Amino acid sequence: MAGRDDRQLLARLREGDADAFDALVQRHHARFVRLARLFVSTDASAEEVVQDTWVAVLDGLDAFEERSSLQTWISRILVNRAKTKGVREARMTPFSALGDGEREDGPEPAVDPARFDDKGMWSVPPLTWDDDTPERLVGNREMMQLLEDELRRLPERQRIVVVLRDTLGWTADEVCNALEINETNQRVLLHRARSRLRARLEAHVAKR
């Protein structure tokens, strides 16, 4: 549901407060362009989707029922428009038809089986992060670049789900509704994406 800050901002937007709208655009525009780019073929197309989204937001403010945050509502509008444009560009098939990155001999394991002994115990345990806490890693430019590079290498379904969940903060239900997948599929895709990203970060930290 919309919080107090959202309700105050929404009231200003509905009153036609141009400064409030400009502040909203400045806060989210770049992030929304990155999100749209997951679905469309060019940066120009992503920018077009976001511009169309802002117009739709202004047109739909009175219809917003505040059952989610304002950001989530806008993001949902953007994703729907980006999906439609992506299909028109023939850049992507419907989300449900995209590959998961699974191998022909079955799903890729989240953890390399070679890291376990014949009793199922760790032979190569997870790296201890010590001072490299997740918060510090996120603040590290080098690590952020590594994450961005690895995100681009993820299978498309995994990449979209992990960006929606971990970058934009969508709930599982919001992702399932926007992408038209069930909760189990969402959970599996998110787990695989997070496992791959963590493995790459772990390997990078181990070399330092």
Structure description:
The protein is mostly helical. It folds into two domains: 4-88, Rna Polymerase Sigma Factor, Chain: A; 95-206, Butyryl-CoA Dehydrogenase, subunit A, domain 3. 62% of the residues lie in helices and 0% in strands. It is built from nine helices and no strands. The protein has helices at 4-14, 18-37, 43-60, 70-88, 134-138, 141-153, 156-167, 172-179, 183-206.
Q: Report the count of strand segments.
A: 0
How would you state the average pLDDT, rounded?
Answer: 78
Assign the CATH class of the largest domain.
Answer: Mainly Alpha
Strand content: under 5%
Structural class: mainly alpha
Please tell me how large the radius of gyration is: 20 Å
Order of helices and strands: HHHHHHHHH
Oligomer kind: single chain
Shape: globular
By DSSP (H or I, 4+ residues per run), the number of helices equals: 9
**Count of distinct structural domains:** 2
Task: Using the coordinates shown, work out and report the CATH topology of the largest domain.
Answer: Butyryl-CoA Dehydrogenase, subunit A, domain 3
Helix content: 55-70%
CA distance, first residue to last residue: 43 Å
Flag low-confidence runs. Answer: 129-135
CATH architecture of the largest domain: Up-down Bundle
Largest beta sheet, briefly? Answer: none
Essential attributes:
mainly alpha; Butyryl-CoA Dehydrogenase, subunit A, domain 3; 9 helices; single chain; 2 domains; 208 residues; 0% strand; Rna Polymerase Sigma Factor, Chain: A
